Task: structure prediction
Amino acid sequence: MKSQPFLIPPPKMRFSTPQTTPTYGYISVVIPTLLAKGGQLYSGRGLPLVQPRQIHSSNGFLQLNLSVQVGEFTVDWLTLSRRSYNGEFPGPTWCIKAGDVVNLTLTNKLQKPDFVSKHNNLQFPNHTNIHTHGLHISGLRPHDNVFVNVTPENGQYHYNYPIVSDHPAGTYWYHPHLHGSVDFQTNSGMSGMIIVEDPTDSTTPQHLLDASCPGKCEHDVQLIFQSLLFYTGRGFASAQQSMHDRLFT
Ligand SMILES: [Cu+2]
Result:
């Protein structure tokens, strides 16, 4: 883990034209995205497709520990440092079933100080929380409450998500939702999939059972499209500049 992902820079670091500033090292690069199953195919540049790590529930529970920390990954000659879940890009996939309970401990290993701006501006790159898309769960604590604020230097929150017994199967999504840093942290790579598996009883048609988890997991390929490398427009680097963030490569 890299030690300090955020620094409030001295005034001379507040650039209006970051592209000309060597300190930030802004670059324009396009690296081919490869889509290949099981990391078997290479184009000669870029990385093979890596399947996100899956964490499966057992006996009706999914016990999860997600740590927000700086991770590094290298594509050819380029090494990127990004805020991440457990140093993984993307975060691990939660594989659950209807009727399960998800117990998630979110720990924030980023550091102080944090950049503060006006309400509705980009701010708080090192504060975080977590939010899910697609799950039919409560928005109250300790469930999916987006007003939870997990502070840097080991702030922690224990989320609890009871998944109803008739929850639809599907592929869903999680990402941070602290107002001010949602875009920035999500663009950094902090997101992942939630798979509610098909029920294996008679409510699922055989042709689906033949092509999906839990019986035929080898037919599932997990894909997330993530804008980790956008260095122009409303991408990671623009947000990074607005938040005076110096974590870069
Ligand atoms: Cu969202």
User: Anything to note?
Assistant: Helices lie at 182-188, 206-209, 236-242. Residues 1-5, 7-43 have pLDDT under 50 and may be disordered. The pocket of copper (II) ion is lined by residues 131, 133, 175, 177 (CB under 6 Å).
